[in-house]
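Why do we care about 3D structure at all? Because function follows from shape, and shape follows, mostly, from sequence. That is the central idea of this module. The next example makes it concrete: a single protein chain, its amino acid sequence, and then its structure expressed as tokens.
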Amino acid sequence: MTTEPRTFPPRPLRDVKATYARQASCPSYFAQVVVDFEPWEQGVEFEVADTSGVPGWPADWVSELHEAFGSGVREELADLAPGTTVAVAVVLRSIKVHEVDSNSLAFRHAGRLAVRNALVEAYGPPPRPRRNRACRSAAVRHPAQGADRAGGRAGRWRWRWRWRWR
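And the structure:
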């Protein structure tokens, strides 16, 4: 199987959306971006549109979020498969922030997600690994999967009730 060298992006990709939201506990993270990926010269060129400001936030805070987003995009593009030529202009169209949960780490992750979403839009989803069911051994099963320490199917119900009522 031969693979031909490919260039990212193969065509202009408009309005690629990426949302990074982790609200499990403190600290929480939130970042939402809309990005355009356009074919350009060799390398990565990052631009910010005039519409990507945030009302009520100081300009230096917003520029810090933009820089974090750009570093996330560059990190993800550096991790592409060998043979992929990166020649892209990334235009950050808009951002949405949360007054408490938005920070530079959230926007760095949003940059990585934006590149992944653009790759899916350009080339389709990555192939899923095939699951080999023949490799599973009964000796290495978790108690909740059917066999107790003593063995047998009755152990499954014993474990289920034990975990449910504790």
